[in-house]
Amino acid sequence: MPANLTPQYLEADRKFREAKTPQDKLEALEEMMATIPKHKGTEKMRAMIKTNISKFKAALQARPAGARRGPSFHVERSGAGQVAVIGPPNSGKSSLIAALTGAQPEVGDYPYTTRTPAPYMMKFENILIQLVDTPPIAPEDVESDVVEVVKAADAVLFVIDLADQDSADAVDKLLADLKDRRVELVAPDHPLPGERSQFVKRTIAPANKSDAPSAGDNFGFLQEYFGGRLSLRQVSARRGDGLEELRREIFAFLDIIRAYSKTPGKKPSLDDPFSLRQGTTVGEMARAVHKDFVEKFKYARVWRRDSLQGQMVNRDFVLEDGDVVELHI
In the chain, which ranges are E strands? Predict the structure, then answer.
């Protein structure tokens, strides 16, 4: 007997597969149980969901209640991509994150306000991108744990202080120290090697405090000093200068596309896209929608702005940002 799964159940199933923490997985399972049709064709599925709910509840209850021995520098991934935000002391990292996300990280006019990495979500149009605030790094004392956060991230924002006339020397030393630790920061248009012996991270360098009195002269010097090594952008977290452009650039250098799933005969929901890597095919999107769709896939229809209007495509068709995909199984 066919399961006849509802769109609500399929959405909950997607949340479960994309969940990163046991608590999120448990919540998705409970939503699956609440939305799955109740008939003979779903008996085994409902039994499996109940079993998984019990397992996750038991695992969460078994967690020790005691405090951790020290700070954890592992940050659970969330959203369409993860960007590590680094910089020298008092460069304005936390202020910039607050301006980009609307969150309220601890901000102070003194160095080392940020003591442990903390994630915040930045909205770009209809998706969320995770920004990870990190403790400030100084050339003489680069924390190895912070380097690990940078290695795990998809990309980097390297915040520079335009109010500090000595920032170029400090940034230059930091770039060299990171490279010694097998982390190389490159411009967004730099090609990434397939096989690499070190961690190469696409990087934008927001030059913060563009509203400072000497900012213009300092920015010109930084551009001349670093040449093509850093992709510099003038911004002001306090005044909001350049922040919309920066959001768009962060989205662009993550190599993300947004694709929308459409049910035959219905309009697509443009508020909840699938965030996929550039180069993703229709077949790979079908797997993201539901793992069973790959085997049952027959064909798809794709709408692409002004160029495609419901064109029939096969599983190898490469998607672009904004595509609407109607899967036929």
Answer: 82-86, 118-124, 127-133, 155-158, 160-161, 183-186, 199-208, 232-234, 256-262, 274-277, 299-304, 308-313, 324-328
Considering the segment(s) 1-66 as one domain, its CATH architecture is Up-down Bundle (1.20)
pTM comes to 0.71
CATH of 82-253, one of 3.90.850.10, 3.40.50.20, 3.40.50.2300, 3.40.50.300: 3.40.50.300
For 180-236, write each residue's pLDDT tens digit.
Answer: 888 999 988 877 765 555 689 999 999 999 999 989 999 999 999 998 888 999 999
* Angle between helical axes of 93-101 and 243-253 (0-180°, round to 10): 90
Among 282, 280, 317, 277, smallest CA distance to 297 is for 282
